[in-house]
Design goal:
Keywords: DNA-binding, Membrane, Transmembrane, Transmembrane helix. This is OmpR/PhoB-type domain-containing protein. One of its GO terms (molecular function) is DNA binding. Among the domains are: about 10-105, Arc Repressor Mutant, subunit A (Orthogonal Bundle), CATH 1.10.10.10; about 155-340, Methylamine Dehydrogenase, Chain H. Helix content is about 10%, strand content about 50%. The radius of gyration is 27 Å and the shape is globular. The two termini are about 50 Å apart.
């Protein structure tokens, strides 16, 4: 099928496939690559009806036909071309047949003779461009300053939100017994808080200066309850019946007009292990519910931000990449704004400045999203990432966590093997059990440490770039070397010589999944997670050759003829055999020699299961409640099974106020 690949014109609109841009006379719209590919196919056969199945096979070759995926791309094209579905002028829908692009296609004009008026216009545009460039480079950099504590107690305070008039702040406070209460504090009278205790609050949002909407953690119904501020306290009013069939309501957010946005568990998958999520819109007047987007279990919604024109979504996809999306609630079109965010970003919309603010929850990093969808760094003095963020005019309210994480093993569950007042985690024990490598924030940012026979830990990777993430170290079976990923590179550490070297891998890498070794030549292979693509990089350490393996699954075991991958809540072998837990979720899966270990968490209980390479279950044992993340294991000379895990302790968070200046 003919497909245009060079720039072309549709009704005075310039289409640039190489840049994925649609250029109008008064601005430029960006398209995601698949939408541009669809436009090029339609423009390759103008004024011709092309069947839906043909278009789908061209864009997604080899996949099962899905009309909704094609409809989403058509909606994106109409929006970029400023066309209408009700009265189209460019893209037409032909019921039960397909789509057509009704327009004359031409090449961009590149004439050599320029009339005087055109020259004058060119000089005017050049002058205007110079003025704009001068303004961009001369204007001050956005700055976050004057940070001070709004709360500072031994309890965990989080999810702070300004009232619509900015005169009060509501937040959640969790006591030592894990009970959560809603607190409303008037800024002009901070000594008299209003409290709503012990109602199982998961989330909330302001409706008016006197009303809030609360999402409860009720297991029987997804309750949304209106509450009202009075002189005597916070008084519950009534629950909204429209959401009673939903579960796990979170990211509650007031939108424009009577709209409310939130995330919930997909009602059709609540009692299954697929665990899909949905982003929904609720109209508080008509109580109409609308599904804006459905997401698989491997997609974690980090945050939402409502604007007058749509909804921004910070999405952590396949446990690898943070994407920024924009949803148009009317057309249900989804636009990818940025597909390669390096972190897990919380969002805050500034109606005062008409800008989106992005704050990383993993490391101290702040950006603003400009009109051209470019991220601009905000100058700041933050020392950590943030849990959440909220804006009123130039005031930014954030939550910042402080926590202690210690490392234990099943031989001494009552005494931490690695403990400090900092975060020590991702412990990786050597095959002999003699040494343990772990990540620690003892210096204020992640570094890699090694302890030998429980002696004083030493730093083996200083993390000079102060990256927010260092992956779990993977040992060679001979215990003489280990590899790990940081700052999108893969490092190898020699235990005997203490030599650290970066491997010559061109692709950006976020973690090392598995180290395949054998006595045969050419079988020393690393399986690595690509940092920006849903794929695995296979790296031969002898030849230096790399191979890109498509697909989102994580390789947890591999041999010359066999492998096992982990995706969502399923383990799948190369032979076609698969395994899923009967109940609960896979928290972590990894291999030790010829054994596959799987940590499964379920309400009230968790287990550690042991499989052979063909996914035959060999054993299972209950895990202590404190074993929040099993990171590694080894078999002793007496064949005793010893596993290492991290336990989060002394978690605290406080609210902080900052000044945002543009």
């Amino acid at each position: 099928m003919e497909k245009l690949t060079h720039a072309f014109v549709i009704n005075n609109i310039i289409i640039d496939p190489q840049r994925n841009q649609v250029q109008h006379s008064d601005g430029v719209n960006s398209l995601e690559p698949k939408a541009m590919a669809l436009l090029c196919v339609l423009a390759g056969q103008p004024n011709t009806v092309i069947a839906q199945e043909t278009l789908y096979e061209t864009i997604w070759p080899g996949r099962v036909f899905s009309p909704s995926s094609l409809q989403r791309l058509i909606a994106l094209l109409r929006k970029a071309l400023r066309d209408s579905s009700k009265s189209p002028e460019i893209i037409f829908t032909h019921a039960k047949q397909g789509y057509s692009l009704e327009a004359a296609i031409s090449k961009p004009q590149t004439g050599t003779k320029t009339p005087a008026k055109t020259l004058l216009s060119v000089f005017s545009m050049l002058f205007l461009t110079l003025v704009i460039v001068a303004y961009i480079f001369s204007r001050p950099q956005p700055t976050l300053s004057d940070t001070q504590a709004f709360t500072f107690t031994a309890l965990a305070e989080f999810n702070g939100q300004f009232s619509p008039d900015g005169k009060a702040i509501a937040f959640l406070r969790q006591s030592a017994d894990k009970q959560t209460e809603l607190v409303v504090r008037q800024l002009e009278n901070p000594g008299q808080d209003l409290l709503l205790p012990d109602v199982q609050i998961r989330d909330f949002t302001w409706l008016t200066n006197k009303q809030l909407l609360i999402a409860q953690t009720d297991s029987e119904a997804g309750k949304l309850i209106r509450v009202r501020l009075t002189q005597s306290g916070i008084q519950p009013q009534h629950s909204l019946p429209a959401t009673r069939h939903l579960r796990n309501i979170r990211h509650l957010l007031k939108g424009p007009g009577s709209a409310i946005y939130f995330v919930a568990a997909h009602p059709d998958t609540v009692k299954t292990d697929t665990r899909q999520s949905v982003i929904m819109q609720l109209d508080l007047i008509s109580f109409e519910l609308k599904t804006l987007m459905t997401l698989p279990a491997a997609h974690d919604i980090v945050d939402l931000a409502a604007t007058p024109d749509g909804l921004y979504v910070s999405l952590f996809e396949n446990r690898k990449v943070n994407k920024l999306l924009n949803i148009d609630p009317d057309s249900l079109s989804v636009n990818v704004i940025n597909a390669e965010l390096d972190g897990r970003y919380k969002l805050a919309w500034s109606s005062h400045h008409n800008r989106l603010i992005l704050l990383d929850s993993l490391k101290p990093a702040v950006f603003t999203l400009e009109a051209n969808n470019q991220l601009v760094t905000v100058k700041h003095a933050l020392s950590t990432g943030v849990l959440d963020a909220n804006l009123y005019q130039d005031k930014l309210l954030t939550s910042r966590a402080h926590q202690t994480i210690n490392v234990f093993n099943n031989q001494s569950p009552d005494a931490a093997l690695i403990h400090s007042k900092y975060e020590d985690y991702l412990a990786s024990v050597s095959p002999s059990g003699r040494s343990v490598v772990f990540v620690s924030n003892r210096s204020g940012y992640p570094q890699l440490y090694m302890t030998v026979q429980n002696n004083q830990p030493e730093v083996i990777f200083t993390n000079p770039g102060r990256e927010d993430f260092i992956s779990r170290a993977i040992w060679h079976p001979n215990a003489r070397q280990l590899v790990f990923a940081a700052d999108k590179k893969v490092y190898r550490f020699d235990v005997a010589t203490r030599e650290l070297s970066a491997l010559p891998i061109a692709q950006p890498i976020t973690r090392v999944e598995y180290w395949q070794t054998s006595d045969l030549p050419g079988t020393d292979v690393l399986y690595l997670t690509h940092a920006t693509q849903t794929s695995t990089v296979k790296y031969d350490t002898d030849s230096g050759e790399t191979e890109l393996l498509p697909g989102p699954e994580h390789f947890i075991y591999a041999s010359n003829t066999h492998h096992i991958g982990w995706q969502d809540n399923t383990l799948r072998a190369a032979t076609g055999v698969s395994w899923q837990p009967g109940s609960g979720q896979i928290r972590h899966a990894f291999s030790v020699g010829e054994r596959i270990l799987v940590q499964v968490t379920a309400p009230g209980a968790q287990r550690l299961l042991e499989f052979d390479p063909h996914l035959n279950l060999l054993s299972q044992q209950p895990l202590p409640k404190s074993a929040q993340f099993v990171s590694s294991a080894f078999y002793s000379e007496q064949n005793a099974f010893i596993y290492y895990y991290s336990h989060w302790q002394n978690i605290d968070s406080d609210l902080m106020l900052s000044q945002l200046t543009f």
